[in-house]
Amino acid sequence: MRFCKILSYSDQGILVTHLPLLFGILVGGAVCRLLWNAGLRYPVTLIGVFFIGMILTFIPGNLVMSAFSDESVNNRRLKEVSEALTSYFATHGTYPADLVSLVPEHLERENEEALLMQGGKGLVWGYVPASSYKTQRPSQVILYGPVLAKGRGIVLHRDGLIARYPAEKFRALLSVALKEAQPEP
C-alpha cells in the first residue's frame, strides 16, 4: 500500500506523470545507443528510433500509472462502500447511521481504508443516509468527497452513479441533499 501512496497524484505526486516519460526516454536512448554501436550512423533514423522507443514505452506506462491516480482510487473506494451500503440495506432493511457501522460485517477490515478519500488528507467520505431523505429518489446523494479535487467534487448517488461536478454545482447539489435529509423540527 505504501507504493500506491508514493505514486499518488496528491501531495506532489509528480512521479506518476513523469515516471513513464522518463522511462520512455531511457528506453529510446538505449535503443539508439544499441543501434549506434551496431554501426547505424544515420541521425534521422536514430531520432525516429528514439521517438518510437519512447512512445512505445510511454503509452503503456502511462496507462498503468493512471490506475494509481486519486481519481481511480476514489472510484474504486466509492464502489466498495456502495456495495457495502447495498449489502447493509439488504440485511437490515435500512441504511446505517454512519459508515463505521459497515465494518467488519459488510466491509472487511483490510478494506476499511475505502472509508477515506484518497487525496483528501485522510478525511472520511461525507455521508447522507438514504433513509434520512423525506422522499426517495435514485439521484439522491449518499456519499460525497469532503474536499474538492482539482476543482471538482465527487459524489456517489443512491442509484450507484459516481459523478464529478464543478465546484458550484457540487456545492448546490450538496446543500440541497443536506437540507432534504434534515429531520423536520
Describe this structure in words.
With 185 residues, this protein is of the alpha+beta class. The chain has 2 domains: 2-66; 70-180, no CATH class. 49% of the residues lie in helices and 9% in strands. The chain is built from 5 helices and 4 strands. Strands 1-2-3-4 form a 4-stranded antiparallel beta sheet. Helix 2 (14-37) packs antiparallel against helix 3 (43-66). The longest helix has 24 residues, at 14-37. It is elongated, with a radius of gyration of 23 Å.
List keywords for this structure.
185 residues; alpha+beta; 2 domains; four-stranded antiparallel sheet; 5 helices
- Rg measurement, Å: 23 Å
User: How would a textbook summarize the main sheet?
Assistant: 4 strands, antiparallel
- State mean pLDDT (0 to 100 scale): 79
> Which parts are unreliable, with pLDDT below 50 for 5 consecutive residues or more?
8-12
Instruction: State the helix count.
Output: 5
Q: How does the helix and strand content classify structurally?
A: alpha+beta
Number of strands: 4
Order of helices and strands: HHHHEEEEH
> What is the topology, as strand order, of the major beta sheet?
1-2-3-4
Tally of individual domains: 2
Strand content: 5-15%
Helix proportion: 40-55%
Oligomeric form of this entry?
A: single chain
* Gap from first CA to last CA: 45 Å
| Shape label | elongated
